């Protein structure tokens, strides 16, 4: 994998040089309290964005995982039934055709070696919101130019902020209704077996959702464990992905006093995030905004 990296202990106010370097994949178990939302206008913004993210992440997460696995057996859907099923499932889930084609193209680029993962680090206007922009591209220079253009339009710029995030495996599951054993405690024990670092309850659009965090290299093992008997009868997998999680999430307030960020600023940032995620080479944009 590649990323735009910082050369030293720079701060958000200082822009760093643009350069590509290899990023290597870098366990006390704890359980966190449920993450609650506030009642400010940001809460409404977050829920709108969260609903869109949840729907897309659910469709894309399972789709991309299935496609990547299937592509190991070949890139021709006519010869590869697993790949054909993955594509059909994505269409059945309502993923727009254009999005399916872009995602499939990215997956093929990785599988055939023509595409490489590239991550850009950036800071939004005001210097408080950090962004990690994950891409897959066969032309890093072209993608860098396009990402920088979109960042600029939204008032953001490339800056070394990778030190503000940790790369983690994130698996989200929901309890299957009517299953007596589908409890948080049972999930916690199962997650421990799979190498989890943390298990916490988060807000889901349809109720309870549990989020299991792991180191990057434990994600595949953990996902396989939770989707195999007996756990697959207790919990429904929603997403499984490698994520950039903020070490110290920035809080959102009405006026953006102190180290917090103003609601109006966040709304502008999220519009920029949406524009970036509509770009063909962009897979996902992560921020350090608190949930």
From TrEMBL:
It comes from the Eukaryota. Residues 40-108 form the TACO1/YebC-like N-terminal domain. One of its GO terms (cellular component) is mitochondrion. Pfam families: TACO1_YebC_N, Transcrip_reg. Residues 117-289 form the TACO1/YebC-like second and third domain. Belongs to the TACO1 family. PANTHER family: TRANSLATIONAL ACTIVATOR OF CYTOCHROME C OXIDASE 1. This is DUF28-domain-containing protein. It comes from Cutaneotrichosporon oleaginosum.
